[in-house]
Design goal:
7 helices; mainly alpha; single chain
Length: 232
């Protein structure tokens, strides 16, 4: 009986020396994974329609435009068509007088080019529809701004050249005028690829804001145990 009485104070003393009870901090809540949100569909370049028909891309990366690999007569006559579209559609009041000067200065050369090109097509029944398509090509609305920026300086330039220089000037000038169209076709093809990827769900997604567990660390609590505090 005496031993039991002595043991009880010792047990109380040991309990008092142990300090306050340590309470474990609760486990951190799981962080939800970012939920992707669908981005908007990519838009066609230069305000073009979504179902626009463009020339096929060739093996060398260029496009089969009406101005590709044409004769000297075609280059001169196609250049005339381009300048006509520019004079009628570009926002430059000086282009109409320059175009009239071009027609006057190169009347003979343009007449010869017209006759030669008509013979290339065989007859007027084939030539006339081809020229209608050519004018429509130069007047494509999505390319008009870039076309005007290219054609206008060339029209002013050719109006001041001697008539004998048209055959040498026309091919290079026509290639420059054609460049805005092939550049547009390349952008349009790239847009088609982006649109297909977007429809397949491969477009970059915008993640929602979420907390990352690595920015948290455990800090000691004054009363014992641990609590989770933000590290920054």
């Amino acid at each position: 009986m005496t031993r039991l009485i002595l043991a009880m104070p010792l047990l109380a003393l040991a309990t008092a020396c142990a300090g306050p009870e340590r309470i474990a901090a609760p486990a951190p809540l799981p962080v939800p994974a970012p939920v992707p949100s669908q981005t908007a569909a990519p838009r066609a370049p230069d305000g073009a329609a979504a179902n626009l028909a463009i020339p096929a891309r060739l093996a060398d990366g260029s496009y089969a435009t009406p101005n590709r690999s044409v004769s000297a007569a075609a280059a001169a006559w196609h250049l005339r068509a381009a300048f006509n579209v520019a004079a009628l559609n570009c926002n430059d009041p000086a282009l109409a007088p320059a175009y009239n000067q071009f027609l006057k200065a190169y009347r003979s050369a343009l007449k010869d080019a017209h006759h030669a090109l008509t013979r290339e097509y065989g007859d007027a029944a084939t030539f006339d529809p081809a020229m209608t398509r050519l004018y429509n090509y130069f007047a494509q609305p999505p390319v008009m701004a870039h076309f005007c920026a290219t054609a206008a300086p060339l029209l002013h330039q050719v109006a001041a050249l001697p008539a004998a220089e048209l055959p040498a000037f026309a091919p290079a000038a026509l290639a420059q005028i054609d460049r805005p169209f092939t550049d547009f076709y390349a952008r349009y093809d790239a847009w088609r690829v982006d649109l297909a990827a977007w429809r397949a769900g491969d477009a970059p997604a915008t993640p929602r804001l979420a907390y990352a567990t690595e920015v948290f660390r455990a800090e000691p609590h004054v009363g014992g145990g641990t609590v989770t505090l933000a590290a920054r």
